[in-house]
C-alpha cells in the first residue's frame, strides 16, 4: 500500500518561480513574431515585473490555505537561495514538514520520523533545481536545458496560449508551460515524470513588491487522481530568516524496549507469504501484517470503531494496481511483542479485515513503524528482531547493499535473466515478486507465456501472469528459475510506476536472512 507524499502547497513558489521566472531571457536577434521561445519568455518576464528584480531576490515567505483530497488545512513556506526551503503543513488530523538545507532534501512525517531523500532521481532533480536557481538554462546553448516552442493552443476556459516545452539532459522530466497570449501570464503547466504527471492551473495574480505572483493554484496528480488547491493569503520577499530553519527536526524516540535491552525479537506467522505479527491496542491483541511497501501504518475501519477511536479526514491511496480511500485515526499507546509505542497517527481503511482470510488482518505496520529500527528478518526461525539503530553493529558475512528509500521503500539494483537491469523495491507486504507495467512494456515482456492468476489486494482484484524466468540476481546472489508476475494492465497504482522496474516480494525475500537498516538506507 502506498500513498503519495503530500505535495508542497507552496510549489507555486518553489516550482513556478524557478521554472517560470528563471527561464526569462531575451535572445538578441530573435524573430519579431512570437514563435521564438526566448522572445515569448522575454515578454512574460516584462509582464510579471522584470528579470532584474527577480534575479536580485534572496528569498521569500508565504502562508495560506490548502485543500488536499478531502483534507483542509494551512501551510507556511520559506525559501532562500541557493536551493533552501521549508514547508510546514497542518491538516489538523495530520501534519508534516519537508525541506532542503542546501545539502539534502528531507521529510519529517506526522509521527516524528525523519527521512533524508537519497534516491537517484531525487538527487538528479536537486541538481536540476540548483542549475535552474543559477539561471544556467538562460543560455540558449546550455548543455543541460532546452526550451522549445510547441505552438499556440487553448487552455483555461478557451484562452489562447503559447506553449513552451522545457527538457533537460539530466533526466527524462519534461515541463509544458502555457502563457496567455494577451496578458503573457502563465495560466497552466504540465510536469511529466516517469511515475506521474502534475497538471496545474494558476490564477489570482497579485502584485507583491512590484512582481505579479499567482495567489491561487489547482493541481491534479495523475494517475493517482489526487487533487490539491492552494490559496496564498500572505506573501513577502526577502524577509529576514534564520538559516537554521532549513535544517530538519530531530527524530523523536517514541518507543521503549520493555525487556530493558536494545533489541527485541518477536515471533511471526508466515502465511500465504505474508508476515503476521501480534499487536496489542487497548487490551485487544490481533494480527497485523508487516509491510515495508506501506508508506504509513494502517488499521481496519471496523476494528478502529470497535476500539472507540475517532476516525477523521479522507485521502486517496494506491496499492498494487488501483486506488482506494483512506481516513486517519490516532492510535493510543500500543505494543508489538516487548516493544511499547506512544500514540501514533495511522491510516484507516474500510474492509481490510473483511477482505482477508485466516488469520484475519486487523492492521498493517508500515514505514513509519519500521523506520525506527534496524529490522532483522529470519524466515527460517520465523522471527523478526527490532534493533535500536544507536547500538546496532553488523559483523556477519552478508553483503551490504546501498538501497536508498524511494517512496519510503528500499530500492536496489536487480538483474533479470542477465540482461534486464533496473531498480526494484523491497516489499515485505507483497506475496510475490512482480515487474511493473512500464518496465515490462519497454522490454517486450507483456506477452511472455505463463500462468494467468488473479490476486486480491487492498486496491481490489489484480490480473497478472506468473512467468518463470531463467534467473534473478541481487548483487552476488543469484536465484535460478524464479517466478515473477507481470501485470495484465498498467493500472493507477504501483504497477504504473516507471522509475523502478519491479517489486521484490516474500516469494524472493524468504530465500535470505535480511537486515533492513532504515537509518543508513542499506540492506544486508
Uncertain residue ranges: 1-32
Q: Say what oligomer this is.
A: single chain
Count the domains: 3
Give the end-to-end Cα distance, rounded to a whole number of Å.
Answer: 24 Å
Radius of gyration: 24 Å
Report the major sheet: 13 strands, antiparallel
Report on the structure:
With 524 residues, the protein is mainly beta. It has 3 domains: 11-246, outer membrane lipoprotein receptor (LolB), chain A (Clam), CATH 2.50.20.10; 255-387, Cathepsin D, subunit A, domain 1, CATH 2.40.70.10; 401-523, Cathepsin D, subunit A, domain 1 (Beta Barrel). 13% of the residues lie in helices and 46% in strands. The chain has 9 helices and 40 strands. The strands form 5 sheets. The protein has a 13-stranded antiparallel beta sheet. The protein starts with 10 loop residues before the first helix and ends with a strand. Residues 1-32 have low confidence and may be disordered.
Keywords:
524 residues, mainly beta, 3 domains, 13-stranded antiparallel beta sheet, eleven-stranded mixed beta sheet, 9 helices
Question: What topology does this entry show?
Answer:
Layout: H1 11-21, H2 37-48, H3 51-55, E1 59-68, E2 71-80, E3 84-90, E4 95-101, E5 105-108, E6 114-117, H4 120-133, E7 145-155, E8 159-168, E9 174-180, E10 186-192, E11 197-208, E12 211-222, E13 226-237, E14 255-257, E15 263-267, E16 269-271, E17 274-281, E18 284-290, E19 298-300, H5 301-306, E20 312-318, E21 323-331, E22 334-336, E23 339-341, E24 344-349, H6 352-355, E25 363-365, H7 367-370, E26 374-378, E27 383-387, E28 401-402, E29 405-406, E30 409-416, E31 420-426, E32 434-435, H8 437-442, E33 451-457, E34 460-468, E35 471-474, E36 477-480, E37 483-487, E38 502-504, H9 506-509, E39 513-517, E40 522-523
Parallel strand pairs: 18-25, 19-24, 31-38
Antiparallel strand pairs: 1-2, 1-13, 2-3, 3-4, 4-5, 5-6, 7-8, 8-9, 9-10, 10-11, 11-12, 12-13, 14-23, 15-27, 16-17, 17-18, 17-22, 19-25, 20-21, 21-24, 22-23, 26-27, 26-39, 28-40, 29-30, 30-31, 30-35, 32-38, 33-34, 34-37, 35-36, 39-40
